[in-house]
Design goal:
α1 crosses α2 and α1 packs across α3 (about 50-65). Helices cover about 50% and strands about 10% of the residues. By secondary structure, it is mostly helical. It has a two-stranded antiparallel ribbon with strand order 1-2. It is globular, with a radius of gyration of 18 Å. The chain has a domain at about 15-75 and about 85-95: Winged helix-like DNA-binding domain superfamily/Winged helix DNA-binding domain (Arc Repressor Mutant, subunit A, Orthogonal Bundle), CATH 1.10.10.10.
């Protein structure tokens, strides 16, 4: 009996804030740890971000497989703490692409209705 190919997994669904977090991490590249992610979101969107909301989103995105993280060495100053750096994974990129396509499809044909 021939084996069937496993069906391709559908991309993960993302909420608006999750999309914003992933995009901020992509923009920051290797310097993506919580503080610059928060600053990037606030600078680009003009929206205040609560630390708790950001950490919750980061944990949720990592659990969904959209992010991976690594701990840095402790900072050289006395009592220096490690930082958790984030990177968008392949499934995270696929989820962003799928979200973008869905939004573009919804926007198509309604732009003129939103003009004053």
């Amino acid at each position: 009996m021939a084996k069937r190919a496993a069906p391709e997994a559908a991309p993960v669904s993302l909420g608006e804030f999750e999309q914003i977090v992933l995009l901020a991490i992509l923009r920051l590249g290797e310097e993506a740890y919580a503080i610059p992610v928060r600053e990037e979101i606030e600078a680009r969107t003009g929206r205040k971000v609560a630390r708790g909301a950001l950490y919750t989103a980061l944990e949720r995105l990592e659990a969904k497989g959209c992010l991976s993280s690594r701990m840095s060495e402790p900072l050289p100053e006395r009592g220096g703490r490690s930082r958790r750096y984030y990177m968008v994974t392949s499934p995270g990129l696929a989820a962003l692409r799928a979200s973008r396509q869905a939004l573009l499809a919804l926007w198509k044909g309604v732009e003129s209705r939103l003009e004053p």
